[in-house]
Specification:
Layout (H helix, E strand, L loop, with lengths): L2 H27 L9 E2 L2 E2 L23 H8 L5 H28 L3 H12 L2 H9 L2 H23 L6 H14 L3 H14 L5 H11 L1 H10 L9 H5 L9 H7 L18 H15 L1 H4 L28 H29 L2 H13 L17 H18 L9 H15 L6 H6 L9 H8 L5 E5 L4 E2 L9 E2 L2 H4 L10 E3 L2 E3 L4 H11 L4 H6 L2 E7 L9 H5 L3 E5 L3 E5 L10 H27 L16
Parallel strand pairs: 3-8
Antiparallel strand pairs: 1-2, 4-5, 6-7, 8-10, 9-10
Helix pairs in contact: 1-3, 1-4, 3-4, 3-6, 3-17, 4-17, 4-18, 6-7, 6-8, 6-15, 7-8, 7-9, 7-25, 8-9, 10-25, 12-15, 13-17, 15-17, 17-18
Length: about 625
């Protein structure tokens, strides 16, 4: 084939995984393409958000939604907030799949078929299904960043010292910032980078990670909410869960096992869970030896792919040996990371493992981030996609006399691999069986937001953080009031899980809720910093003796669904201006890393013909 023909084929091979990943993303989240807003369990999108103290992480609850809430508050006056959230979710799914294909192409030099298998493993799995159903759209950005983080760390490792490597460090900074929409996402990306980047680059990676995590680190230090110990009851409540016939370890190895049994596809409650897990692990196992470098190269593996401008490694043939050694080290490190990511959450679900974690969250500030241990199974995804891609290539090679990358056997093998991954989890399609669908808020929410024109925080009735509105479906959803209204909405942070209540950090919110349910005076509410009381009339929940308190307040707005009251003589409990300034600065730093890092990675072009010194043994 001529040089131009090879170039065209190479460009086509790079376009197809991106298109395939986008197609799977649409199949998974397709219902969100219509009008409306995402409101499902922990996911809350609203037309407009506001830059409240809580959005900056300065409320009296832990800063778990920082910087995502501040980002939405900044952008939603310009672009509808619901559209922003839906776009981020779709882009995250696309990026997870396409990143898996690029990672497999660069670390294993596989052809198109195995790349498509890698895309499928990254997107069509129980982890994605369960986190979509739980409403963890921002966590999925951290999940999507993992293959790109691994790729950036590998490229930094390959470059070594003494080279102009700004594009790779920019890519790593952008990955950290994208993953850092939530603290857990930052931990996922940071762990991946530190394990892979090489010892001489660890300090630089940690500095970047700290900068990308500045919003929630600053908020935790300023508010003090995240420094308090967490409720040990959260460990058992959020422990990984065994699925039918799998046990906890098997569920986690199959990328499932979320704590909430209601946030799983229907297929995971049947013997299909066992079948899907067995097939996934079998396809992964086929490629483990190749990924770890323990087997001989299969037919056609020794032929190095044609270099094009799209290759971002920037090395030349002279450095191929060093690059291959670095690739092998990175692949082996990802395999170890995957094993740890499966085994440790399984140990955390045992009685003695839970006892250890309960002691940790009760005595170590910030350890509450570890209570949902199943989240960290995401760290296994990069290794899984590599093993499945390598396995696809190995199986195809057995049926090809030569050039397996272009043989019909490769296409057939990839098709079979993809079918075996997709069919047992068929109900991931179209919003996990239709569970993911947009909702429409009544106009009353907008009218209430317009009426709130004074100081003071907002207390909400009924008590609790979760709601069941007529328009929100059958499952309980987080109250949209904190993201819908222009003042801080006081929330206790208490979570009902499996018939028990896990205490939150909102001490003042708990005091306010107790005062309302006991029918305390308006003066009592005002002294606690409450300027407004919102009654959500169409959702069940405790209201206690609140009528006694409401009778003392001024009615500002009322319709069939919402009622708003003004509290007289309110003591303003807003955050100190200096704290807000520091929080703003931290968010600006995060935004600069996100935008600047990704632009630097996209614009800066490595010198393709520069000779790169291979990594040394200690890198």
């Amino acid at each position: 084939m001529s040089g131009s023909g090879l170039a065209r084929r190479d460009r086509w091979a790079r376009f197809v995984p991106a298109g395939y990943s986008g197609s799977l993303a649409v199949v998974i989240a397709g219902p969100l393409l219509g009008p409306g807003y995402l409101l499902l369990r922990d996911a809350v999108s609203t037309p407009r958000s506001y830059m409240t103290d809580s959005a900056l992480g300065l409320g009296d609850a832990a800063a778990r939604a920082v910087p995502q809430d501040a980002m939405l508050a900044t952008l939603s006056p310009i672009v509808d907030g619901g559209l922003i959230v839906k776009t981020i979710l779709l882009v995250a799914l696309w990026a997870a799949g396409y990143g898996a294909a690029v990672l497999a192409r660069e670390l294993l030099r596989v052809s198109l078929g195995p790349q498509l298998v890698a895309v499928t493993v990254a997107l069509w799995n129980p982890y994605v299904a369960e986190r979509v159903l739980q409403g963890h759209w921002s966590l999925l950005t951290g999940y999507a960043a993992l293959p790109w983080t691994a790729l950036a760390a590998y490229r930094i490792r390959v470059k070594g010292r003494g080279t102009n490597d700004s594009h790779n460090w920019g890519a790593l900074a952008g990955c950290f910032a994208a993953a850092g929409l939530t603290p857990t996402g930052a931990l996922l990306a940071g762990t991946t980078a530190v394990v892979l980047v090489g010892r001489r680059n660890v300090l630089g990676a940690l500095v970047l990670l700290s900068a990308a995590s500045a919003p929630w680190l600053a908020a935790t230090a300023l508010s003090g909410a995240g420094t308090a110990p967490s409720d040990p009851a959260g460990i058992a409540a959020f422990a990984a869960r065994a699925e039918p016939a799998l046990g906890t370890l098997g569920s986690l190895a199959g990328l499932g096992g979320i704590w909430n049994a209601d946030a799983v596809p229907a297929s995971r409650t049947t013997p299909l869970a066992l079948i899907a897990t067995a097939l996934l692990l079998a396809l992964v196992a086929i490629g483990i030896r190749t990924t770890a470098g323990k087997s001989r190269a299969t037919k056609g593996d020794t032929k190095r792919p044609t270099r094009t401008a799209g290759d971002a490694t920037g090395d030349n043939a002279a450095s191929a040996g060093g690059t291959d050694r670095a690739s092998l080290r990175v692949r082996r490190a990802l395999l170890v990371l995957a094993a740890v990511a499966v085994v440790l959450p399984a140990l955390g679900a045992t009685s003695w493992g839970m006892s250890g974690l309960e002691w940790l969250v009760a005595h170590v500030p910030g350890a509450g981030l570890l209570r949902d241990t199943q989240k960290y199974v995401a760290l296994a995804m990069p290794a899984y996609v590599l093993c499945a891609a390598a396995g696809c290539r190995a199986v195809a090679a057995r049926f090809a006399a030569k050039e397996p990358a272009s043989s019909p056997g490769m296409a057939l093998t990839a098709t079979v691999f993809i079918a075996l991954l997709v069919l047992p989890l068929f109900d991931l399609a179209w919003g996990v069986g239709g569970a993911l669908k947009p909702v429409h808020y009544p106009i009353g929410w907008q009218k209430v937001a317009e009426r709130i024109d004074g100081t003071g925080d907002i207390a909400v009735l009924p008590g609790g953080m979760f709601r069941k509105f007529p328009y929100s479906g059958k499952v309980a959803v987080l109250d949209p009031a904190p993201r819908m209204l222009p003042r801080d909405v006081l929330q206790t942070g208490e979570l009902p899980v499996h018939g028990r209540t896990v205490a939150g950090e909102g001490a003042r919110a708990r005091e306010v809720e107790t005062a309302l349910l006991h029918g305390d005076s308006a003066q009592r509410l005002g002294g606690l910093g409450v300027g407004w009381v919102l009654v959500e009339r169409t959702t069940p929940g405790p209201v206690g003796e609140s009528k006694t308190t409401l009778a003392q307040l001024e009615s500002v707005y009322a319709d069939s669904q919402l009622a708003l009251y003004r509290v007289p003589d309110t003591t303003d409990k807003a955050a100190h201006p200096a704290h807000r300034a520091i929080a703003y600065a931290a968010h600006i730093l995060w935004a600069a890393l996100l935008v600047g890092g990704l632009l630097l990675a996209a614009i800066a072009t490595p010198h393709r013909h520069r000779r790169i010194r291979p990594p040394t043994a200690d890198s």
